[in-house]
Design brief:
- It contains nine helices and eight strands.
- The chain is an alpha/beta fold.
- It folds into two domains: 206 residues, Metal-dependent hydrolases (TIM Barrel), CATH 3.20.20; 54 residues, DNA polymerase, domain 1 (Orthogonal Bundle), CATH 1.10.150.650.
- Strands 1, 2, 3, 4, 5, 6, 7 and 8 form an eight-stranded mixed beta sheet that branches.
- Helix 7 links the parallel strand 5 and strand 6.
- Helix 4 packs across helix 5.
- The two termini are 16 Å apart.
C-alpha cells in the first residue's frame, strides 16, 4: 500500500479539482489518499464520485486553530480523518472559520485598494471560484492586476504577512476547543507539520498537552521536516502512544511536492482506521 494522508484541492488552497486529485493520486501509484481541504468537507463527495478503481479515499479536513507558543498565539493545523461530517457542532465551527476568512480577506483587499492599488474584490471572488477566499486568491489577483510579478512576493511582511500595513489577523478557534468537537464527531485528530517553516515549532510540552486532550497522531514525515525534526517527533510519538503519519501536503503547482512525496506506513494507516467509528474509508 502507498498511502498519502494530506492533500488539498480547489475547494481550499489547492489548484487541482477534487476529481482530478483522485485521478492524479491513482496515476501516481497511490492506493490510499486523504482529501484534507482547509476547514471544509466540500470536495469529498466530488472526489468520491470520481474515485478510480483501486484507490481508497479517506474523508478528511485540515482545521485552522490557535495555539499559544512562547506567550503568543499562532496557527496550528489539525488534520482530522474519518469524522462524522454531519455532526452539527463541528460543521458549524468550520463554517465560522470559513466566514472569518472571507471577512478578513475583504478587509485586507480594502486596505490595499485604499492605498491606491488597482485591486478589486470582484476579481478575488472570481479567482476563488468554489474555494473559500483566502490569501492565495488575493495574491493571484494582485499578480493579475500588475501589482506584483509573482504570487510569492505577496507572502512577505510588505504585503500579506504579519507586519504588513495590509495584514489582518484571522479568527480561528483554540485547538483545545476543537479537539473535543473532533472526538465527539468520532474523528481521528492528527497534528499537522508541527515543526514546519511557518511560526515557531511546537515543542514536546505542546504535544504532551494535546495528547492528554485526545490527539491521536502526529504528522512526522512531511516535506518541511528535516531529519532531526523527524527523529525527535518519532521518538516523542512513541513515548506518547501517538500514530505516526507521513504525507505530501499536496497543493498542486502551489507547492513543489507531488502526491506520494511522503507516505504513511500500512501499520499506521490501520491504526488510524481502527481508531474511529465516525466514517469508513471510501472505495470505488
Amino acid at each position: 500500500m502507498t498511502i498519502d494522508l494530506h492533500a488539498h484541492s480547489t475547494r481550499s488552497d489547492g489548484d487541482v479539482s477534487p476529481a482530478d486529485l483522485v485521478r492524479r493520486a491513482a496515476a501516481a501509484g497511490l492506493t490510499v489518499v486523504a482529501l484534507t481541504d482547509h476547514d471544509t468537507y466540500a470536495g469529498i463527495d466530488d472526489a468520491a464520485a470520481a474515485l478510480p478503481s483501486g484507490l481508497t479515499l479517506i474523508p478528511g479536513v485540515e482545521i485552522s486553530c490557535d495555539i499559544k507558543v512562547d506567550g503568543q498565539m499562532q496557527t496550528a493545523h489539525l488534520l482530522v480523518y474519518l469524522m462524522n461530517r454531519w455532526y452539527q457542532p463541528l460543521t458549524a465551527t468550520l463554517a465560522s472559520i470559513r466566514q472569518a476568512r472571507i471577512e478578513r480577506a475583504q478587509i485586507m483587499v480594502g486596505k490595499i485598494t485604499d492605498a491606491g492599488y488597482p485591486l478589486l474584490w470582484a476579481d478575488v471572488v472570481t479567482i476563488a471560484g468554489t474555494s473559500t477566499i483566502g490569501k492565495p486568491h488575493i495574491a493571484q489577483a494582485m499578480v493579475n492586476a500588475g501589482i506584483l510579478t509573482t504570487v510569492a512576493e505577496a507572502y512577505t511582511p510588505a504585503w500579506l504577512d504579519s507586519g504588513s500595513p495590509y495584514y489582518v489577523p484571522k479568527w480561528q478557534p483554540d485547538i483545545q476547543d476543537i479537539l473535543p468537537l473532533v472526538l465527539e464527531a468520532r474523528g481521528v485528530p492528527v497534528l499537522a507539520h508541527p515543526r514546519g517553516k511557518r511560526g515557531s515549532p511546537l515543542d514536546d510540552h505542546h504535544l504532551e498537552t494535546l495528547a492528554r486532550a485526545g490527539l491521536a497522531g502526529v504528522e512526522v514525515d512531511h516535506p518541511e521536516h528535516d531529519a532531526a525534526a523527524r527523529g525527535e517527533l518519532r521518538g516523542l510519538a512513541a513515548e506518547l502512544g501517538l500514530i505516526v503519519t507521513g504525507s505530501s501536503d499536496f497543493h498542486g503547482s502551489r507547492k513543489p511536492q507531488g502526491l506520494g512525496a511522503e507516505t504513511t506506513s500500512r501499520e499506521a494507516y490501520k491504526a488510524l482506521v481502527a481508531a474511529t467509528t465516525g466514517a469508513k474509508p471510501i472505495m470505488a
